[in-house]
Amino acid sequence: MNDQVIEADETKPLWGYVSKLSKTPGGGNNMIKCSLCDFSFNGSYTRVRAHLLQIKGEGVRSCPKVSSSKLVEFKKLDNEATLKIEISKKRKVPLPVSDEGNQTNKGLKLKGPLESSFNIQARDTLDCEIARMFYSSGLPFHLARSPYYRSAFSYAANTSNLSGYVPPTYNKLRGPLLSKERSHVENLLQPIRNLWSHKGVTIVSDGWSDPQRKSLINFMAINESGPMFLKSIDAFDDVKDKDFIARHMRDVIMKVGPNNVVQIITDNATVCKAAGMLIEVEFPSIYWTPCVVHTLNLALKNICAAKNTERNSVAYEQCSWISQIADDAIFIKNFIVGHSMRISMFNRFNSLKLLFIASTRFASTIVMLKRFKSLKKGLQKIVISDEWSSYKEDDVAKAQSVKETLLNDNWWMNVDYILAFTAPIYDVLRKTDTDMATLHLVYEMWDSMIENVRKVIFEHERKTEVEHSSFFEVVNSILIDRWTKSSTSLHCLAHSLNPR
């Protein structure tokens, strides 16, 4: 056997002195050849041990090439392997003994009528067994709140003819039981499928990455009966161009039925738009609609993180101060969480935590500033405390900068202003980011949203309706531009068919 096999199983070191010639049909044995005496025999590791350690009665002859010194060496290897196996075995830890079930050397504690009738000792033992399962397997405690968890144990405890029942094994759970549950769910979803031809269907597609950074694309079918998961594809090794996405869109449409599909919704990425155009050409009755929530998020990014480019110079000039406020907040957060002592001070003055918001989260800047506003008093108490003043480290200059920012009333006024004029946008984003149908509301909500943004900006700048606001013109142009790129005739039609 080669060195690779020896490394793979240190509990069977004698494999290294034989070679596996072939697998024996109909069993787990192999045709084995001794590397010392070239003797070939059929068997498993048990016979390898018997051959090399000169053990009689195992159906194989002893190796004549094993000298006394070699036998001592083999036995040492075998003993070390046996010791490793014993050490690696999980030892059963006894359960904690309750007062009701405790038996001392002084004698057996007699059960009272209450303990006997309710079998309290057995109940307590079962509780300990369940608790041990949670602790040893790292199961989250909120699993105990699952109705299925409670119903499973209640059924087992209250069914009299389950004596000798053994829970399903690993393979049974991941195999036949999983297939059975899937078939059951498919049958439960059939009534929803039956309504697709009457009510129509919207197909929603979204891409995301799992913890291993593998790219996945989900497809769901949605109508007034609710959402239904259709499929998920692993696109890790694929080039996600328009043809790739359009091909999978087409497969889903054919599965649902082209006559049942009204629209397909994706994000606003260029490749998704191009794929949507291909679908519209192939299926004239199906619309491609960009996601409203993603559109609003892009609008907020254009406002809160304006890019400094020649083409975007006007917007950058008017909105760069927002980016500066957001950068200050990120700097403060990173400074506080960058050291255990600063985190300890923060926790003493605040009940809420600082949020670690992913850049992919919708309205990430707004969410972060909303949390800062909630933490305002606690953050200010930290930097004026004696602990902050006496805290000496190599970041004294940064600590002073954080203190000046958090005690700056103008900085907090700017935070309040950002949250105020973006509140209408954020509210529409939250209302449309639900499972409820909002297509018929988008047209009016967008119009009202712009008007509410205008009111906040004009009130802050103390301008009348007839006056001009450069900042509002930039914000308005961003919102109008995003609406122009994302609106479809479906929005107008849905609005017309659902008047208020």
Would you mind describing this structure in some detail?
This protein is α/β, with parallel strands linked by helices. It folds into 4 domains: 3-88, no CATH class; 115-155; 188-290, Nucleotidyltransferase, domain 5; 301-495, no CATH class. It is built from 22 helices and 8 strands. It has helices at residues 3-8, 45-53, 68-88, 113-118, 120-137, 147-158, 170-174, 176-194, 196-199, 242-256, 270-282, 292-304, 313-337, 340-349, 364-374, 376-383, 386-390, 396-406, 409-432, 439-460, 470-486, 489-497, and strands at 18-23, 30-34, 40-43, 201-209, 215-223, 226-234, 261-266, 287-290. The strands form 2 sheets. Strands 6-5-4-7-8 form a 5-stranded mixed sheet. The chain has a 3-stranded antiparallel sheet with strand order 1-2-3, covered by helices on one side. A hairpin with a 5-residue loop joins strand 2 (30-34) and strand 3. The longest helix has 25 residues, at 313-337. It is extended and about 105 Å long. The N and C termini lie far apart (80 Å).
Distance between the termini: 80 Å
* Multimerization status: single chain
What is the count of helical runs? 22
- Arrangement of strands in the largest sheet: 6-5-4-7-8
**Number of separate domains:** 4
Shape: extended
